[in-house]
Write a structure and sequence with these properties.
By secondary structure, the chain is mostly helical. The protein contains 4 helices and 2 strands, in the order ααβαβα. Strands 1-2 form a two-stranded parallel sheet. α3 links the parallel β1 and β2. The protein is extended, with a radius of gyration of 19 Å.
Length: 119
């Protein structure tokens, strides 16, 4: 998207173009997630697909997973939408703790450290 918008800034000048672009990106992402999930389930020989987390609130993803699992002979178990929240609250708490401890801000281009210290 970054490069597309850099090369096509005119898209941002029209509200309908922005909506169309967002819908297209969402459709492409959902298609890839569903296809890879079904392919992985078949490859692993599992009979059930589960999904949770923030992205699982997406209506299109839920619908397409349901539509793909049935014909593939897979059961689908989706977490309740109320349990599929993103990490915004956790990110906010981390930011508060960094402020309290006067920690330096993390650079935008910093490497991801999944086991890094929180403060």
């Amino acid at each position: 998207m970054r490069y597309f918008l850099r090369n096509h800034p005119e898209v941002l000048q029209n509200a309908q173009s922005i909506r169309d672009l967002c819908a297209s990106v969402q459709a492409a992402i959902v298609d890839v997630l569903v296809a890879k999930t079904i392919r992985a389930a078949r490859r692993l020989g599992v009979g059930c697909v589960t999904a949770s987390g923030g992205v699982t609130c997406n209506r299109a993803l839920r619908q397409q997973l349901a539509a793909a699992c049935g014909p593939a002979g897979l059961k689908l178990r989706l977490a309740e939408k109320s349990l599929c929240t993103d990490n915004a609250a956790m990110i906010g708490i981390l930011a508060e703790r960094k402020l309290i401890h006067l920690a330096a801000p993390t650079a935008l281009d910093a490497e991801i450290l999944p086991n890094g210290a929180l403060v």
